[in-house]
């Protein structure tokens, strides 16, 4: 019981905390909530000269705060690159990426790391946790890296939120794949980031564990206004999102708004694959 | 960061290599440093009851950096002793003349020969050690002696510089040594160099007063300064031991850095996803770096703590073997040396942090994206820093080796080794550059076979792994070839040298004694030299020279004006050793003259003064040049017994090296001098303490003794290097192969048998060893060439390069076997086709 009661208590200061350093807001005239992440004319190319591969093509995408976006597309469509650039893991060749109102182009590696630490959360397909640390220590890691000790109960509460309060002292090797992924989600959310990026979070899980992970992500959006960007190729996973973007050859070629049916997503995906096959042949 | 400890605990396997390397390094350094520090000069036991001692003044240093002392004459010594005895607080002052005496039992000399040179003492000096009579009376007349272990009245056979004698024991002492009446001792010893005081006052006060009395004619030592009275022969033994111990410390530390650096590099490369994840969740490069430092610190502290007791406990056990090997004086023990332990601990930690420093810097800048990548492509192997460091080390090494011949002998071997170390480091740093072409070349013939293709491609994408394996091999093979090659090259010229000079003759040589007595020499028909040490003052400076007493007839021939040209054409039969190989310093020379000469008397080198009043000195051209002397120059010479004499140079002749003097004069001024060897003209006569042997065998004794030491040094140093690098090779490959489990599973799923997988891994291991060997060969040849040309420049003649193929092949094979075994282990252990546990 107490755990549940604690959540809003933790959340509240965390939400306040998010606004606190943001002096830039004063200069803003926009009345509506700014997007959590915005990509403006982002191009990403790998290599140079004739061998250059254009992964992202003058992409303009905005991820509004408190929304759950799924990014889909055939392999090589640039969806992973989109995630890397949007999350500040990789730098765009040209164009601007704005995370929580801060353009990251001019930031040093160190400043970018700090920005990631406080505003961005990650959930990967696999290898999400540090094997040497317990579940609780993994969740506390971002806080510790930021140089602050977790408030009493903060970590336990976070683990409780993902249903693993009783597993705090376990190491990753003692947890199932689904449990590991839920610890990863707890860790990603513990800093109350402006945006959570998930890269095929269900890719390595069985159907039931996958559903549980997606339910948790959905709950974070619904109950805590968490912004989530998820790259996936699974229509079932994408169906949990508020919006589905379809990428092909580094461009957004299609989108579906509102909770979309799995069927509809699958059809669009198939269409895209066909189109691609047509181009190729 | 407090996670460091958990990281270490969790991934101990990947830190095991660092752990073992540091443990071993700290153990070696702690042990060697303990022995080194335990081996301090110590005042002889027989001065233990004399807190204040006065020694004769030093006039500078000899060629080995040891101080050169002049002697007081007997008169000077007794005079000074009398004056010192009158000082308040002084109970007695005893001059301490020392001479050669050795006990004969059944005609054979007993005891340690070198120690026997200083075994004879004056009775009054027994008080300096607090030795007292347990029975009987003090010796009073010539032929009487007080000693330990024999009851009064016993008659004992002894050998002195004069010859065999029979003495009567008048008293039994409770301390070692032969004590004869003071006047006899003064007559038998070449002057006095120490006067000991027994006191009942304050040592410092007495010392001050003694300084006032002694003035510039003596140096007063007290407390720890008394340790400088250690006999030179003991100091030399300790010096030999110190050489080995210093080499052990240097090599131990170097090998530890090498192994730690390569292990850290590999483990960091393997952890790159974990580091990437840390970066992704918000660890700054600084935090990653600090974490890696903290992990290494934890490991290093644990490893050092494990290594310290090993080293500290092994050191005392090694004291015995060190004494047996002639590297420490008898009675040496290893004692606990806090400084050695602290130093070794600190060194271990610093070495570990140095090993991880470069790796941490690089790993901390790993992009966070690494956490998301699956591809097995490695980090770029060569960085700008690596290029710079590699090229700098190579240039430094070559420059050092090229300048070798311009350096002084004392630093040359260190500089040579340092140059080689720099080159080895350079080769290790630049290895990734040459690995790709080398591997392409080596695998070209098998590129179509499945195994060949896998090995080729597997190696080419994992340059870093190959480099990590090749580095320790490089170190081992390089060191082995360099050390054995240097020795073999020098041995080779030495053999040529000696063979050319030795006449086919027979000699009478010492047998269980430090040298031949006059009786032993007189009994033979042949040539001999009576060695002594003289101080020659010239141009404001005084220096010590080895001098030899030459029988009267020979001396006359040498100084005869007509003799010079013909003499200079027949070089003396002095087996000299080439410089640079000198493991046994300070033993000079042997018989002179050539056997063809006629009618030299066995000599009457007794105490009768030269009947024809021979005097003067004969110099060889080198010494003459050094002294700026020519025929007719008058030299100021101080004999071993402290008397001064002005002697004219009679001739400058290239017959024998050094300073030649009339034998009678040498004997008169150095009553304890012993002849090294007699070159026989006639049949040998059996005498106590002498044996007959061919010249070749006699020379071989010295060569063997030196060879024994060199072999010992080589065995220890190469053993250490091979042990260390074997460990590094095994560790690197165990780590690397274990991490490739998935890759091997995929291979098996694709239809490869375990045998085929083993063939691939073994071939990869052998390839890595081959790369290391090739680089080592390159470095060794360059270094050896540097050493060779330095020796060549010094000897001013062609010196052929000797490459120790046997040693090189043996060490390479050992490395290869270790490498194959280390790769086969993990492959055989995980033979299943299913994924092995969560990764």
From TrEMBL, chain B:
Q: How does the record classify its membrane topology? A: Multi-pass membrane protein
Question: Which compartments is it annotated to reside in?
Answer: Cell membrane
Q: Which UniProt keywords apply?
A: Cell membrane, Membrane, Transmembrane, Transmembrane helix
User: What's one Pfam family here?
Assistant: FtsX
Q: Which InterPro entries match?
A: ABC3_permease_C, Macrolide_Exporter_MacB
- Compositional bias of kind Polar residues: 561-573
Question: Which family does the record claim for this protein?
Answer: Belongs to the ABC-4 integral membrane protein family.
Q: What is the lineage of its organism?
A: Bacteria, Bacillati, Actinomycetota, Actinomycetes, Micromonosporales
**Main location group:** membrane
Q: This protein is called what?
A: FtsX-like permease family protein
Domain ABC3 transporter permease C-terminal: from-to ranges: 247-367, 716-831
TM ranges are 12-37, 244-269, 297-319, 339-363, 384-405, 417-441, 462-483, 712-736, 757-782, 802-824
Region of interest: Disordered: 559-618
């Amino acid at each position: 019981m107490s755990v549940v009661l604690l959540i809003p208590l933790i959340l509240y200061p965390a939400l306040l905390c998010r606004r606190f350093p943001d002096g830039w807001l004063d200069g803003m005239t926009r009345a509506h909530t700014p997007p959590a992440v915005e990509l403006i004319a982002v191009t990403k190319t790998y290599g140079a000269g004739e061998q250059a591969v254009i992964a992202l093509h003058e992409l303009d995408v905005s991820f509004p705060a408190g929304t759950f976006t799924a990014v889909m597309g055939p392999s090589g469509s640039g969806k992973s690159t989109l995630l890397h650039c949007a999350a500040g893991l990789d730098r765009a060749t040209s164009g601007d990426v704005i995370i929580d109102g801060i353009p990251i182009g001019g930031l040093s590696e160190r400043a970018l790391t700090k920005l990631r630490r406080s505003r961005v959360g990650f959930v990967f397909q696999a290898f999400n946790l540090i094997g040497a640390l317990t579940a609780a220590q993994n969740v506390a890691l971002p806080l510790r890296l930021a140089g602050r000790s977790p408030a009493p109960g903060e970590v336990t509460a976070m683990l409780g939120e993902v249903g693993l309060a009783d597993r705090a002292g376990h190491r990753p090797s003692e947890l199932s794949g689904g449990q590991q992924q839920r610890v990863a989600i707890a860790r990603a959310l513990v800093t109350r980031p402006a945006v959570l990026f998930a890269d095929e979070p269900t890719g390595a899980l069985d159907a039931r564990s996958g559903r549980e992970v997606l339910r948790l992500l959905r709950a974070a959006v619904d109950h805590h206004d968490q912004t989530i960007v998820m790259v996936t190729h699974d229509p079932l996973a994408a169906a949990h999102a508020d919006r589905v973007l379809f990428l092909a050859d580094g461009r957004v070629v299609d989108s579906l708004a509102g909770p979309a049916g799995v069927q509809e997503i699958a059809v669009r995906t198939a269409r895209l694959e066909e189109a691609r096959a047509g181009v190729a042949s | 960061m407090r996670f460091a400890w958990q990281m270490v605990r969790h991934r101990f396997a990947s830190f095991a290599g660092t752990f073992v390397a540091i443990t071993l390094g700290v153990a070696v350094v702690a042990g060697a440093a303990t022995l080194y520090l335990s081996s301090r000069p110590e005042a002889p036991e027989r001065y233990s009851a004399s807190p204040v001692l006065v020694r004769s003044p030093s006039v500078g240093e000899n060629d080995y950096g040891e101080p050169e002392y002049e002697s007081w004459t007997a008169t000077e010594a007794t005079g000074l002793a009398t004056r010192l005895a009158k000082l308040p607080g002084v109970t007695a002052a005893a001059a301490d003349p020392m001479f050669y005496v050795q006990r004969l039992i059944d005609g054979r000399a007993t005891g340690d020969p070198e120690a026997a040179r200083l075994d004879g003492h004056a009775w009054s000096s027994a008080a300096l050690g607090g030795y007292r009579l347990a029975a009987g009376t003090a010796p009073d007349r010539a032929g009487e002696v007080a000693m330990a272990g024999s009851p009064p009245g016993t008659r004992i056979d002894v050998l002195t510089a004069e010859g065999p004698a029979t003495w009567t024991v008048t008293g039994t002492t409770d301390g070692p040594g032969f004590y004869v009446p003071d006047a006899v001792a003064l007559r038998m010893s070449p002057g006095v160099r120490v006067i000991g005081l027994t006191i009942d006052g304050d040592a410092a006060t007495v010392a001050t007063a003694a300084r006032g009395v002694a003035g510039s004619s003596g140096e007063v030592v007290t407390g720890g300064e008394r340790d400088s009275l250690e006999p030179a022969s003991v100091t030399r033994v300790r010096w030999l031991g110190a050489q080995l111990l210093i080499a052990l410390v240097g090599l131990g530390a170097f090998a530890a850095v090498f192994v730690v650096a390569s292990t850290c590099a590999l483990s960091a490369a393997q952890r790159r996803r974990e580091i990437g994840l840390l970066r992704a969740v918000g660890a700054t490069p600084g935090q990653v770096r600090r974490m890696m430092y903290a992990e290494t610190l934890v490991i290093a502290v644990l490893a050092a703590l494990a290594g310290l007791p090993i080293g500290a406990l092994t050191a005392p056990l090694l004291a015995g073997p060190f004494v047996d090997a002639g590297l420490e004086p008898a009675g040496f023990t290893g004692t606990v040396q806090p400084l050695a332990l602290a130093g070794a601990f600190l060194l271990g930690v610093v070495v570990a942090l140095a090993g991880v420093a470069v790796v941490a810097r690089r790993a901390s800048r790993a992009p966070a994206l690494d956490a998301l990548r699956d591809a097995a492509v490695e980090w770029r192997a060569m960085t700008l820093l690596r290029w710079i460091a590699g090229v700098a080390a190579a240039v430094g090494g070559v420059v050092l080796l090229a300048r070798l011949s311009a350096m002084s002998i004392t630093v040359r071997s260190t500089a040579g080794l340092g140059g080689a170390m720099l080159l080895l480091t350079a080769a290790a740093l630049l290895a990734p550059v040459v690995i790709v072409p080398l591997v392409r070349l080596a695998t070209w013939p098998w590129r179509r076979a499945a195994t060949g293709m896998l090995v080729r491609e597997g190696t080419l994408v994992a340059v870093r792994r190959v480099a990590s394996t090749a580095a320790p091999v490089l170190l081992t093979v390089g060191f082995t070839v360099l050390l054995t090659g240097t020795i073999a090259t020098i041995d080779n010229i030495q053999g040529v040298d000696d063979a050319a000079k030795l006449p086919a003759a027979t000699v009478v040589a010492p047998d269980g004694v430090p040298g031949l007595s006059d009786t032993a020499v007189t009994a033979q028909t042949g040539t001999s030299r009576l060695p002594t040490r003289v101080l020659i003052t010239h141009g404001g400076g005084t220096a010590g020279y080895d001098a030899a007493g030459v029988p009267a007839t020979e001396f006359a021939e040498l100084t005869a004006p007509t003799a010079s040209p013909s003499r200079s054409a027949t070089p003396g039969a002095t087996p000299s050793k080439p410089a640079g190989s000198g493991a046994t310093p300070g033993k000079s020379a042997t018989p002179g003259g050539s056997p063809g000469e006629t009618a030299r008397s066995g000599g009457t080198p007794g105490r009768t003064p030269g009947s024809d009043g021979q005097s003067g000195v004969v110099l060889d051209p080198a010494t003459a040049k050094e002294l700026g002397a020519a025929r007719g120059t008058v030299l100021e010479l101080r004999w071993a017994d402290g008397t001064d004499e002005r002697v004219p140079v009679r001739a400058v002749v290239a017959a024998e090296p050094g300073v030649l003097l009339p034998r009678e004069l040498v004997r008169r001024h150095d009553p304890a001098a012993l002849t090294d060897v007699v070159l026989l003209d006639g049949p040998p006569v059996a005498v106590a303490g002498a044996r007959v042997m061919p010249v070749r065998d006699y020379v071989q004794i010295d060569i063997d003794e030196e060879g024994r030491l060199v072999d010992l040094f080589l065995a220890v140093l190469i053993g250490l290097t091979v042990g260390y690098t074997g460990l590094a090779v095994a560790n690197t490959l165990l780590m690397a192969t274990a991490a490739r489990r998935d890759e091997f599973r995929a291979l098996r799923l694709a239809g490869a048998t375990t045998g085929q997988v083993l063939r691939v891994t073994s071939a990869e291991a052998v390839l890595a060893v081959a790369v290391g060997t090739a680089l080592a060969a390159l470095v060794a040849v360059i270094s050896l060439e540097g050493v060779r040309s330095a020796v060549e420049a010094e000897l001013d003649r062609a010196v052929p390069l000797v490459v120790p193929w046997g040693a090189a092949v043996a060490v390479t094979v050992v490395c290869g076997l270790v490498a194959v075994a280390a790769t086969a282990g993990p492959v055989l252990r995980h033979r299943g086709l299913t994924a092995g546990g969560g990764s």
